[in-house]
Amino acid sequence: MAVKFFGQFLVERGAVSPDKLLEAIDLQDRTNLKFGEVAMTLGFLGEAEVERVHDAQRGEDLRFGDMAVKLGLLTPEQMQQVITWQKNNHLYIGEALVKVGALDSARVAKLLEEFKADQAPYLAGAVMIPEGVDNPQVWEMAADLTFKMLARVANLAFRPGPCVLSQSFDAKHLAAAMDFSGSLRGRYLLSVSRGVQQAMARAILKESDVSGEPKEVLDDTVMEFINIVCGNIAAKGAQMGQNLEIDPPLVVAENDQQVSVPPEFIALSFPLYFADGEGAELSLWIAR
Amino acid sequence: MKRVLIVDDSISVARQLEKIVTGSGEYDVVGHAKNGAEALKMYQIHRPDLVCMDMNMPIMDGLTALRTLMTMNRAARVVMVTSLGGVGDKFTEALRLGARNVISKPFEEANVLQILREACV
Questions:
Q1: Pairing mode, if any, of strands A279-287 and A159-160?
Q2: What residues does CATH 3.40.1550.10 cover in chain A?
Q3: Which CATH architecture has domain A124-287?
Q4: Residues of B in contact with A5 (CB under 8 A)
């Protein structure tokens, strides 16, 4: 019921032991060479040139191959040859598990089908991000996963409004947030009306009546919901090549407070409409 | 009865987990720590058979606590319960440090009980 990678799915299912998975991952690490290592293997670069590319990457966010071409150390054709070599020699985790004797090929194929079915609910849907925003596919994924988790985890039915750039954020009854850093930096915020918070609490606590719950517990369910969503966004982000570290969740505002977006961020706002006038808003603050 | 320590900064998750493990009739919950530092103290006091540990917590995160806990007792049985389970690096680091398994949030009762039973073998 969460975003997973294949190895994790297999261990969680008991199809392979943790030790065998680690053995297979170690084999992958030894087999799947990095771009610079392949370029050296093919005789395109020497150690000093690889180091020069690494130094340049500290000052400019470019992938190894692009930087090597920019510095005139590789031709575009050589860069393509390295990429092709990596692709042709890549050892996938399923193959690695066969090589270390954890599974046979037929069983891998069957489990892979089961894994795809398990993860199908988390395939990206249609979310439109305004033009001019960097990494739109990441924010599409973040919003899409939020919508899916609201339906699956919190059992909520709603209609998402169009995404707009915004200068402020409406806290509604309660707003909780998680900061993220790594290859992208910013803040994930979700505000909920009282009714949405109650529905979320009923689903997370698996209780039919939460009217007697203290505020601390009700607020915690919203924080835990965004913790689940952000953890799964980090997992999807990793599949997309983004390294996202997340901080623990916190309550940032309440009681219909209007929060101004700090100038160092671009804010993407996703309004969510529920029945009976209840509402929620997802806001993604992205560092400029 | 196996004795379980729950480590999570979320009250609602601790409640959910407690309901699942005690409801099975196989476990007693000996305590709820809200961060890794509290978990280490409570582990020494209660010496539980099993620890269910979150990763993303304030003060001390779950992987740091796991690393320390395994130096205190190499035979400690720890299962990570985390929304970060699908992040490959976090998952493999937890296993390398000695976690018996990693449960992803959102979790399902049957899955939690199956993994905890396997971890106790």
A1: unpaired
A2: 124-287
A3: 3-Layer(aba) Sandwich (3.40)
A4: 86, 88, 91
